[in-house]
Design a protein that fits this description.
This protein is an alpha/beta fold. The chain is built from 10 helices and 11 strands.
């Protein structure tokens, strides 16, 4: 049976380390990192995500300034708010929860955020920094996956990592991150997607398989090499009448059958999800240190 890569346990450990770091920052430099969270509309999933981020920030000692607006909030007003937050030295990170209502141009909004406060790592400048291996903010999910591997003693240098999915949030930035000639990286990386022929033949070549397809039952045991490490990024709701909520969460991987073949596997829930928020906290702390001129 595969080793379970618990993102929940690792996230808790890293958050304890962050608490100690933040306590020292407050004591020595009178610095409390602050994150501005902007939510437009009342999408239930977005509200849930924001609540989770607020709770995580409070847990480690990061201040949250929440800006909540109705779904008809104007784009110009949102852009003005972002400009004000960019110029506010008491705000170290800015997070605009996606998706935004249809009348607001998401790209325009994300590009308006100061790259030095872009703790989601979505601004083109931070994407460019990732591309060339320069210091910048890395999106939380790819960075969380990297930490799950390295802190579980999985050295991917020289390994073949196959990523199933090419989104701008997971697949592409993860490939850029793991191919770097650096510690915790230096892998050979292949990206598969909906246009890839014979996907199963390629995934079976993977020493490390990352599945971020966004669709349940995407990967079964026949698609996985014996002894591979499997990271399941998917979060899918499926009907389950035995649950009070009426549903349960599953990943993109057939967990039981793949776990019998893999050397290590991340579960859903409790795998990549907690790491995503933890790396957001990491970015906020880095942003606060940089803006105050404290060595990172």
């Amino acid at each position: 049976m595969a080793k379970i890569l618990s993102g929940k346990e690792l996230a808790q450990k890293m958050r304890e380390e962050m608490k100690a770091e933040l306590s020292e920052l407050k004591e020595k430099h009178n610095l409390v990192p602050a994150l501005a969270v902007v939510l437009v509309g009342d999408d239930p999933a977005s509200m849930s995500y924001v609540k989770g981020k607020e709770k995580a920030c409070a847990e480690v000692g990061i201040d949250v300034q929440k800006y909540k607006f109705d779904a008809d909030y104007e784009e110009n007003s949102l852009l003005k708010l972002i400009a004000d937050l960019n110029n506010n030295p008491e705000v170290h990170g800015i997070l605009v929860q996606l998706p935004l209502p249809e009348h607001i141009d998401e790209e325009k909004v994300l590009y308006a955020i100061d790259p030095e406060k872009d703790v989601d790592g979505f601004h083109p400048i931070n994407v460019g920094r990732l591309m060339i291996g320069a210091p910048g903010y890395v999106p939380g999910t790819p960075h969380g996956i990297q930490k799950m591997l390295s802190r579980n003693g999985i050295d991917i240098s020289g390994m073949h990592v196959v990523i199933l999915g090419r989104s701008n949030i997971v697949g592409k930035p993860l490939a850029l991150l793991l191919v770097q000639k650096k510690e915790e990286a230096n892998a050979t990386v292949t990206i598969c997607h909906t246009g890839t022929k014979n996907i199963g033949e390629i995934t079976k070549l993977a020493d490390v398989l990352v599945v971020a397809a966004g669709r349940p039952h995407t990967v079964n045991a026949d698609m996985v090499k014996e002894g591979a490490v499997v990271i399941d990024v998917g979060v899918n709701r499926v009907e389950d009448k035995t649950k009070k909520s009426g549903f349960r969460l599953i990943g993109d991987v057939e967990f039981e059958e793949v776990a019998a073949k893999a050397s290590a596997i991340s579960p859903v829930p409790g795998g990549v999800g907690p790491m995503t928020i933890t790396m957001l906290l990491h970015n906020v702390i880095i942003a606060a240190r940089k803006q105050r001129g404290i060595k990172v």
